[in-house]
Amino acid sequence: MAHIETAHLKVWQAKAKSLGLQVTREDGKGEDPYTYYYAHNGSLIYGLFSDANGSDNSYGVFFDKPKQDKWSICS
Amino acid sequence: MLYSWYNDNFEAVGIVPAAKRQKPVMFYHGTTPEKAAAILMQGVDLHAPKSHDSGDFGNGFYLTLDKTRAKHMGGPAILEVTVDLKFFAYIPNPYFLDKLQQVPPRNKVQELFYCAAFDNKGEMATIHGDKAAGLTRQQVCNAVQSTMLANGFKGLHTEYHGCETVVYDTRVIKSIAWRRG
Question: Are B83 and B149 in contact (CB under 8 A)?
Answer without folding.
Answer: no
